[in-house]
Amino acid sequence: MNYRDCGAQASTMASQEFLLQMDEVIDVDEVVVWRITPLFADWIASPQNFFLRNAVIDAESTVLELGCGVSAIVGLALAPRIGTYLATDQDYVSKILRLNLESNMINIEGPKKHRSKTKTTPSSPSSHKASKLKFLALDWETDAVESLPALLAPEKDSKKPKVDVVLACDCIYNESLIRPFTRTCEDLCRLADATPTNNPTICIIAQQLRSPDVFEAWLIAFMRSFRVWRVPYNLLSDGLKENSGYVVHVGILRSNLEI
Predict the structure, then answer these.
(1) How far is CA 5 from the centre of its chain?
(2) Distance between CA atoms of 47 and 147, rounded to whole angstroms?
(3) How confident is the prediction for the chain on average, in pLDDT?
(4) pLDDT for the residue 8
(5) How confident is the model at residue 64 (pLDDT cuts 50, 70, 90)?
(6) Nearest 5 degrees, angle CA 65-CA 168-CA 14?
């Protein structure tokens, strides 16, 4: 995928203090991203992705990403194919994120914090794409997911708003993140009740396999609340397949399966 074509070629970092000197990150035109991020963005936004082929993700879907980072590559790749993309991260990310998007002639809509009133940026040739992408400040440890519904459009047949898909790309790299991450996923999946006519929220989680201990601790914690499946390698793109050091899991809240 050519990220410039899909709007995801953020070209200028506004602050060098965000550059990470680690083996797991790469520098794409001066924007540092985790190595798995462009690979995951390519895969999740591809028309051949089985979530898109089977309309699990479609033109009306609301997708929320946890830990979008300052580049928002995944959101910029996937937003044109869906209804609404909510990129979330801690509040300090928003300034650099907006600057990077503006430097590539991409406008972003949405409040700085999810407690504020929604503000819309001026229209531009990219306004249609931009209107699908919003940034919300969300700290897994301090912010309540319950305040998000006011910013989500309710479904036509329900008074409760719903996130169709929760995405996370390389968000768990130490054990201190496991509990707040898992709790946030649980809360997002409970925003709307799953019914026979209202499909449950699914979580799609991509990870680089660094520490076996951290990965095992996350998987044990996550499986307490979620039914979890590893995406088979034959359904992944080449860069994510076996021996790549990356893995993608799908989770559905256990209580949402008991309907």
Answers:
(1) 20
(2) 33
(3) 77
(4) 33
(5) very high
(6) 65
